[in-house]
Amino acid sequence: MVTNRFLRFYIRVLATGIVFLSLSLHGQVASDSSTDSPAPSDPIASNLVSEVAATSSDLLASQTAAPVQDGNAAQSQQTPTAPTPQSLHDQAEQQLKVQEHQRIMGVIPNFNTVNIQNAVPLSPKQKFSLALRSAVDPFEFVAAGVLAGWGQLENDNAGYGQGAEGYAKRYGASYTDSADGVLWGNAIFPVLLHEDPRYFRRGTGSFRSRFLYAISTTVWTRNDNGTWGPNYANVLGNITAGGISNFYYPSDNRGVGLTFEGAATVTAEGALGALGVEFWPDISRKLFHTRDRAPVAPAPK
């Protein structure tokens, strides 16, 4: 898949801004996300706690004096119930509903980011649903239009020509590139390879550790069983989408070499995007004085 000059320029500028802003936060990121002011003492609350403690003591004494129940019954009451597949599915649905409202600056979709510790793995249907939600978001259609306009201005993929027909071809190619990447890299291959297509934001730790973690996720990801391993789905998805683009790009922009070059470029750009996702809440807190209190995902094992 061949990315046009505007996309590369935009991502580089965005990444540069993220890095510089993140460097200014160095030494503050971990403390900002972990330090909270203690709540002032309240005499009324203290009295209430004392009353609750006294009541609890009375209840404990009464339970101690009560006759002992049957051993099997007591054991069955104490044994925790393991979550059923249906309950895990429902938990994943609730987490997805939260993710589908996440946007950077209120505009750019951020549906694939997880801020929850030990997030429940997604079912195949949920992976496809999340990919479809990302692919059909209005922002993707607007972005494809902007990229197509810039490509026409720069005469990228000259075989498309100019005018309305040339713009329509560029628009279709731009949107198809994005949709194919999402479909193969976030749905089909993750289902086949049992990988989680989401980005698990670390949110805590030193700047260096978070920086290295973010750029590594483009080739290292979490599996459905909770372990971490190579991100085959992302790499294969980029290569597959690049191969499909040979069917609709002009003859001068086709070929095996261009396919792998484009896939490598998109994979590298994914690392820059991960930096943006990882550090945006910190940047937002710094610039707009907001506070990100969402739980964060654990570091990879």
What does this structure look like?
It is built from 11 helices and 6 strands. It has 301 residues and is mainly α. The protein has one domain (5-28, 86-288). The strands form 3 sheets. It has a two-stranded antiparallel ribbon with strand order 1-2. Strands 3-4 form a two-stranded parallel sheet. α8 packs antiparallel against α10 (232-245). The longest helix is centred in the last third of the chain and has 33 residues, at 256-288. It is globular, with a radius of gyration of 25 Å. The two termini are 32 Å apart.
Number of helices: 11
- What is the string of helix and strand elements? HHHHHEEEHHHEHEEHH
- Give the strand content: under 5%
How many distinct beta strands?
6
The major pleated sheet works out as:
2 strands, antiparallel
> Which shape, going by the Cα principal axes?
globular
Sheet with most strands: strand arrangement: 1-2
Structural class: mainly alpha
**Unreliable parts:** 1-49, 51-57, 59-76, 293-301
Mean of pLDDT: 77
Counting structural domains, the number is 1
- Measure the end-to-end span: 32 Å
Q: Specify Rg, calculated over alpha carbons.
A: 25 Å
In helices, the fraction of residues equals: 55-70%
Features:
single chain; 301 residues; mainly alpha; 11 helices; globular; disordered N terminus; disordered C terminus
Summary of the model, kept short:
The protein has 301 residues and is mainly alpha-helical. It has helices at residues 5-24, 29-34, 43-65, 71-78, 85-99, 124-135, 138-154, 163-193, 207-216, 232-245, 256-288; strands at residues 103-104, 108-109, 113-114, 199-200, 220-222, 228-230. The strands form three sheets. Strands 1-2 form a two-stranded antiparallel ribbon.
